[in-house]
Amino acid sequence: MMTKLLLVLLIGLTLESIGVVLLNKGIKQIETPATITLKGVAGLLRNGVTNRNILVGVAFEAAFFGCLLYLMGHGDVSFIWPLTSLGFVITTLAAKWWLGEEVTALRWAGVVLIVLGAGVITFTEKQKEKSRAGAAGLSSP
Fold first, then answer.
1. Which of 26, 36, 93, 134 could link 54 by a cystine bridge, Cβ 3.0 to 4.6 Å?
2. Angle between helices 87-98 and 2-29 (to 10 degrees)
3. What is the DSSP track for 20-35?
4. CB–CB of 73/4 below 8 Å?
5. Whole domain around residue 107: which residue ranges?
């Protein structure tokens, strides 16, 4: 079961990362108001809902949300939610490759810390599964 959850998580996080990159590209393509006024916000919304990258980015984010709903329905939130932080890794890679962003060594160090934290979370879930299996073995005749 955990393998299936991790696969859905990986697919969802990839969708999210693509969505974030597309949203970033789209927002840079439209004119943003210098000051926040009702007219400026209305223009921003009008430009946003007609920008292909923003629309496709929102669709990818919605698909990620669908994956997240599935995951929440099949796993502990204390396991699933921290693992979504792995999306920072995928998004950082996507920003570097597709947006040409410079990612400093210090930023990569932060990404490594996120991966280590997610690894600890995964380890605790494996320990929990072993405990359940051991308890099930003890209770059967």
1. 26
2. 40
3. HHHHHHHHHHSPPPSS
4. no
5. 2-139
Buried b (16+ CB within 10 A) or exposed e, 63-90: bbeebbebbeeebeeebbebbbbbbbbb
Domain count, the chain: 1
List the structure tokens of 128: 């929990």
Rounded distance between C-alpha atoms, residue 83 and residue 136, angstroms: 27
CA distances in angstroms from 95 to 8, 17, 99, listed in the order given: 22, 9, 5
Which among 76, 88, 74, 75 has a CA at the least distance from the CA of 118? Answer: 88
Distance CA(89)–CA(92), nearest Å, equals 5
pTM of the model: 0.77
Q: Which one, of 83, 94, 98, lies nearest residue 17 by Cα?
A: 94
Summarize pLDDT for 36-68 with one digit per residue, the tens.
899 888 988 899 999 999 999 999 999 999 999
Place of tokens 């879930």: 125
